[in-house]
Each structure stands twice: as C-alpha cells, then as structure tokens.
Amino acid sequence: MFNRRKPAHRDSLRTVAEQIQNTIGGTFVFNPCGLPAGSDPPSMYLPVAQSRKEVLNKLDIEAKKQFVADLKQRLDRSKVVILTDYKGLDVGTVTELRRKLREAQVEFQVIKNTMLRRASEGTPVEPIIEHFKGPSAIAVSYDDPVTVAKILSDFAKANDKLEIKMGVMGGKLMDAGMIKSLATLPSREVLLATVLSTMNAVPTSLVRALSDVPRRMLNVLQAIKDQKEQVAA
Predict the structure, then answer these.
(1) What was the pLDDT predicted at 29?
(2) pLDDT score of 47 more than 60
(3) Pairwise CA distance, residues 217 & 98, whole Å
(4) Which residues cross the membrane (predicted)?
C-alpha cells in the first residue's frame, strides 16, 4: 500500500470554487472525478470538465460588477472628482501623491476607462464621461473641493508629468484652468475660521451698540429738558 498523491490542480480548483461561492453565492460541490454527487443536493455543480479558465472568467465578471457598483456609490456621494493623466510617473512618485491625498481624506485610484464610464452613468460625475480616455487616475473628495485641487496643482508644478485633465463638481465640468483657480481659494478650514471669527465679532459689536442706547437716550432727554427750560426762562 502507498499513499497516492493528489494532483495539485484539484486543490486549486477547489479554492476557485470556494471563491465563486463566496462571491456570487450558491453551493458548489467539488467533484474532481466528474461522478454524480449522490445524495448531496447541490444548487450548482462543478464537474472537472469545466475548465479553470471558465471558472476564473465567471469569478472575474462578478468581481468587476461588484467593483463598478461600489465605485458608482462613491462617485454619487463625491463633492468633486478630478481626472488626471499619470503617464510617465514612476511608482514611487505615484505612491507619494497617493499618500498626500490620503492624508487629506482624498481617494486616488487608477481605473480602467470602461469601468469609469459604467460607474459614472446616472451620477453627478456623468458629464465627464467623454474625457475618460488614455491612462486615467481619478482623485475623489467627499469633503473639501479646494484641498484636492490645491494638492494636485502643487504636485503638478513639481512633477510636470502629472497632467490635470478635467474635473467635475456639482455636476458641472471644470477644465484645468478652473481647477487651478479653485486651488487658489481658501481651504475649508480657513473659511470656517473666518466665519467663526465674524460670528464672534457680531455679538460683541451688537452688545456695545445696545449698551450705548441708554446713554444716548439720556443725552437726548437732557437736551430736550434744557431746551424747555430756556424757553420757560
């Protein structure tokens, strides 16, 4: 008697089947010999005749559908999306740009144009669809449009191979010039600080004005009294 070694591809197929089950649901019965499943009541059946390529394709299609659905949700709730051409940037430079954007709560991702087009349909980002051409990487901000424009503009000045192509904010297209202009505006934090300081100043001025009313009223009354006394005299 000797132990018969199990072919490696069987474990590989079993792993793929489990991945498909986790991705799209259903019960897969791994049957490397292609024999009937017997008493097992499978809802889906994976015979050995089904090639690994077919299984991987099925898994790949479902994964792409899920990715597009998730991307659509992100684009739908974005405040601004800026499209860039990263061609010519090395991996280290792209990593540095992604780090700077991530620190500002901005997502930066390289995505195939076909997926970008599908995910953008029916979202405020849809006007930019026709510009998804060539190497595309998008910066997505859910909060402050100025910050992402500022980071990309400053980075492009230091790295001329990064091209800011187009952007969309509130369903309106922005060309590269408009994005650079947006980058010159005060950031959200600066604007909030200005508003708060203004709000704090208003009550102080109002209190001073109100506190001065009785004094001015007394002066008016005193003037009226003096005038009457002069007339009486």
Answers:
(1) 44
(2) no
(3) 64
(4) none
φ, ψ of residue 103 in degrees (nearest 5): -65, -25
Q: Answer for the pair 95, 128: CB distance below 8 angstroms, yes or no.
A: no
Judge residue 203's burial from the number of C-beta atoms within 10 Å of its C-beta, 0-12 exposed, 13-18 middle, 19 or more buried: exposed
Confidence of residue 49 (pLDDT cuts 50, 70, 90): very low
Q: What is the mean pLDDT of residues 72-87?
A: 93
The model carries a pTM of 0.60
Statement: 78-188 belongs to CATH 3.30.70.1730: yes
Nearest CA to 190 out of 132, 137, 144, 128 is that of 144
* Res 163 pLDDT > 90: yes
